[in-house]
Every structure is written in structure tokens, then in C-alpha cells.
Amino acid sequence: MMKRDQCLQVLARYRTNEIVVAVYQAAQEWLHISPSDLNYTFTGAMGQGSSHALGIALGRPDKRVVVLDGDGSLLMKLGTLVTIAHAAPKNLVHCLCQNGTYETNGAVDIPGRGTVSFPGLAHEAGYPKTYTFESLDEWQRAVDRILHEDGPLFVDLHVEPGEHYPEALLLDSRVFCDQQLNKRTKQCFASLTDVVHKLEETQVQREFLL
Amino acid sequence: MAENTERLRAADLITAIKSAGIRFIVALPDRTTSEHLLKPMLADPELRVVQICKEDEGVSICSGLYAAGQRALLLMQHTGLLDSINALRGVAMEGQNPVCMMVGLLSKEPGVLPTQSKRYGIRIVEPVLDAMQIEHHLIEAPDDVEKVVPAIEAAYARSLPVVMLIGREPC
Which long-range contacts link A33-39 to residues 24+ away (Cβ below 8 Å)? Predict the structure, then answer.
């Protein structure tokens, strides 16, 4: 079992320009551990994180997208595993922070705790590769390779709460803060898309002239 | 509402959807639109169709695509729309994401306003959308196709969702 913040710190060390979609506790900690305009943390409703990530991954196949999902969240939308596997985005890494509880909602156990196999579900849904990490050492040895491997990948991270991170950043200004991050991300993407379109137009014009 | 015997043409809808810059269709089959709208879209090389298992996934996939600078349309049945209310609340409205939806009104009587339908499930759709302050348009007659591009453009300009209700099966 890994402390979640330590697990996320390892990921942050190997992060370069990946877009990271994070939900609930992982999102709160991730914003402290790896602040970036490419953090996407306003997912709007429980269970929706991996669907946002799929949309981003399909829309920007040139960027790597990592989603930090929760086990309670994933249970709400198990069909997302089939949707993602069917869409098969090579640039998506679906990480599951598995803590066995609805941590944000009173730390009540999830149904199926200790019996349900999330990597098993992902494998049967059609993810070409799944991983499970229970120790920080194993995770640290594999993370760089995983961030460069063709997806969609499913990464089952067995975690428990670690250090306490101040919640005020998210809770006091959650919507504002997250939307600002998203708006900046959107602006950044929009301008990149413009550049790509302009380059494509130039190329078309050049080919036409030739 | 008088019944217009002229049929809504799916090909015109697809042209309008493409004119609005949409290249991604996120869909779960609906009897009103499957045959003449979704199936041609699946075969259209200019469109990428993302098939989903549950409609509310589509609300978030469209939002993710928007964040990535892409325009998308969520195609589903009104039952799926009703099933997606919390995602529409949190992701589309509170998150201010321009999720554009085309929603088949399964079994609505042709020429009858949705609010006048004998079917409870149809009658409540527009009042529910009104309560959620979600913009909506009825697309049932051939002339209604003209509403599609402005509705999508307005959604992106306002960064808010829009629902286009398909009142009868297009041909």
C-alpha cells in the first residue's frame, strides 16, 4: 500500500507536458503536488473524470492524457471502461487511486472492497494492458515507461491517505479556481489549435501553388 | 401545431452539423435517429463517431473535446437526456461547457408539440430543460434544419449547452 501523496509525487517527478485530469482527493492533492495549467480538475459530477479525459485524449492525440480516477467514482460508471477501450486512444493512461472507500464522503467502504478486480474489469473491457502497483518502489521503476507506452493503459494504484493537504484551496474557491484553470487550458489549447490550422492551411496553399 | 407532411431530411441535418464545424459525434443509438442519421455518420469519413455505454458519459466526453479545441455533438434519445440530468447540471451548466445535443423524441406524435404529447416522458422534456435553463429547439419540419447552425454557434459563443429535439424520424 502506498501513501497517495507519495504515489502522486512520483508521478509528478516524471511528468513533462501531460494533461492530468484528477478527481476528488487525488485532485486536491495533485494541485499542490504538481501545479500546472494542464491540470483539469473540474469534472462536474462523480464518475465523470475518465470521460472528460477520453474527450481530451481524442481531441488532442498529440498530447498525453493521464486521468487520476477513484474507485468509488469508477464504480459509478463502469461502462466507461468499455467506452474507452472501444475508442482506444493511444495517448490515455487511466490511473485508479484505489483506496477501497468513499473517502470524501465519510470513508465508508465501497461495495466489493477487496473482492472486485478493477484491472480485471479493465482487461475484460478491452484495455490492451493493465498494471497493478502496491509499493512505491515498483511504481517508481515503472512510471516513466508507462508514460511513454501506447494506451489506453489501466494503472491500478493501491493507496491510502498520506499527508494532509489544505483543503481550502479547493473547497473555498473550488469552482472559481478550477474553472480558471480550465479556461486557461482551453485558451492554451485553442491557440495551439489555431496554429495547427494555420500551418495546415499554409501547407494546403503551398501544395496548391506547386 | 399543424402536421407538415414534408419530411425532415437526415442528409440536410448532417450537412448543417458539419457546417457548424462539428467533427466528433458522441452517440448512443436512438430509434428516431439511428437509421438515417447515426448510421450514415458512422460511415462518413469526415466524422469521428465515439460510441458510449451511457449518455452522461457523452456530456463529459463532449466537454473534454471542447477543452481540446474540438466541436462535438451528443446524439441520444430523450430517455438518455433525462438520465443525464446530474451531468448536465454539473458538467454542462455549472462547468459552462457548450455541450451540443441532438435528442430523439421517441414515439412523439408527428405534428404535436412535445408539451401536448399524450406520452408523459415526452411532455416533461421541455419543462425539465426550462427548469435547468438549458436552451432548446424543436427540429421536426424541413425548415427547422435552419435552426441547427445558429443553435450550435450560440452554444459555443455562450459556452453553455443546447438541446435540439428531433420531433420525428428523419428520412
Answer: A33/A5, A33/A8, A33/A9, A34/A8, A37/A181, A37/A184, A37/A185, A37/A188, A38/A185, A38/A188, A39/A181, A39/A185
What are the boundaries of each domain within chain A?
Answer: 2-209
Q: Do A59 and B24 touch (CB under 8 A)?
A: yes
Whether residue B2 is contained in a domain is answered as no
The CATH number of the domain holding residue B79 is: 3.40.50.970
Residues 6 or more apart in contact with residue A198 via CB below 8 angstroms: none
- Quote the ipTM score: 0.96
Residue of A59, A83, A175 lying closest to B64 (CB–CB): A59
- B107 to chain A, any CB pair closer than 8 A? The answer is no
Please write the tens of the pLDDT for every residue from B102-147: 999 999 999 999 999 999 999 999 999 999 999 999 999 999 999 9
Cα B83 from Cα A139, distance rounded (Å): 38
pLDDT value at position A203? 52
B91 touches chain A (CB under 8 A): yes
Name the 3-class secondary structure at A76: helix
CATH architecture of A2-209: 3-Layer(aba) Sandwich (3.40)
Q: Which of A21, A23, A56 to mutate to test the interface with B (most CBs of B within 10 A)?
A: A56
Point out the residue among B58, B69, B91 whose CB comes nearest to the CB of A45: B91
Any domain includes B127: yes
Determine contact: A132 vs chain B, CB below 8 A: no
B59 contacts chain A (CB < 8 A): yes
Q: Measured between alpha carbons, how far is A44 from B87 in angstroms, rounded to an integer?
A: 7
Asked if residue B85 is part of any domain, the answer here is yes
How much is the average pLDDT of B56-67?
A: 97
For B131, the domain range is 10-166
How close B116 gets to chain A, by Cα (Å)? 33
Domain count, chain B: 1
